[in-house]
Amino acid sequence: MMAQPVRNYAREMEKLVEKHVRRGERPRLLLHVCCAPCLSGVLEYAARFFDTSLVYYNPNIAPREEYEKRLEEVKRLISEMPLENPVKLLPCAYDNEAFEVAAQGLREAPEGGARCMACFRLRLSYTAKLAKEQGFDYFTTTLSISPLKNAQALGAIGEELGEEYGVAHLPSDFKKKDGYKRSIERSKEYGLYRQNYCGCVYSRMCAGRPAEKEGERQNG
Q1: Topology of 9-18+25-207 in CATH?
Q2: Number of helices followed by number of strands (H, E) in the chain
């Protein structure tokens, strides 16, 4: 089987944005947020061109105290970051059981492997379903801003779910054009908490150290 060509999701998003700007349109976007540091590099752009709402659906994050800590940082960033247009955070319950069901049989999978793909699908599925129910034009995720996350896989999953739920997936690779660098700068500017493991207990074990220890940081 021939390998699929690499998509330039960042350029595809730019073209879509250019089209809407020419038409004087401001589409509604439901943006899945994995954490405040990633959001800091995405929010300014998204809020400029879209009527943006956020959903913090991350049942993978454990323990619950960690989940709540990251959520509070998302809320703080929204309240402190000056934006061209306001955004709102939609309510969302913590449901770690949903992640454990999705990860069943995949607990020993390496980081970035099948378990992570199942986790991406779980979070994006929730986002796509909610986007359809509430009449959004597009949905996407901040996850692609991390150099540790596979934008090609995220894009493919997003498009599959968009077709399944009947709502358009916004192609994106937010790490492009210094997006990740911008997120680092903004995180320092706002003093954001930057976690050193992705979120689930398995990524924490793979990190080989407790979450509280200083070191190399990961995103969402």
Answers
A1: Rossmann fold (3.40.50)
A2: 9, 5
* Structural tokens at position 200: 């689930």
Task: For the chain, give every domain's residue range.
Answer: 9-18+25-207
Question: Per residue in 77-119, pLDDT tens?
Answer: 999 999 989 999 999 999 999 999 999 999 889 888 999 999 9
Dist. CA 62–CA 68, nearest whole Å: 10
Q: Across-strand partners of 32?
A: 55, 141
Cα 197 to its chain centre, rounded Å, is: 15
Structure tokens at 44: 């300014």
In this prediction the pTM is: 0.92
Phi, psi for 134 (deg, rounded to 5): -105, 10
Cα angle for residues 177, 204, 181 (degrees, 5° grid): 15
Element (H, E) at 44: helix 43-49
